[in-house]
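B., you asked whether I could sanity-check this one before it goes into the benchmark set. Here's the sequence:
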Amino acid sequence: MVFSRYENGTDVIERWDRVFEAVAAEPRRQLIVSLLDREPDQSVRLPESAVNPNVPIAPERLERELKHCHLPLLADGGYIEWESDPFVASRGSRFEEVAVVFETLHSFAADVPDQLVLGCQRLERERQFG
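And here's what the prediction gave me:
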């Protein structure tokens, strides 16, 4: 019993570490939120769906970063699936593990400190319209 709890605890810690690594970069956060806004079986276009509208980045640079860093990390975790032609992403088998972070955050937008809300269109909208 103790060993089983230890094994399960270790697994949970590793999963949370992977989730927080997955959401540690803005393009990955934007992509996850874009996928949340779609039906589960729909894909989103890239690189557009990974851009923060308040802080645009050159599309060529973002596409390179997505293909070589962000998308492989998310795909390796099972959070997304992606294709390069057409350049799109869709939910992976473990998408809910990262989605819950944003669903929870959005549902408590009124409690999030202002410095983490102002400038984030999604949280500002959640706060305004609840």
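One thing to flag: The longest strand covers residues 80-84. Otherwise nothing jumped out at me.
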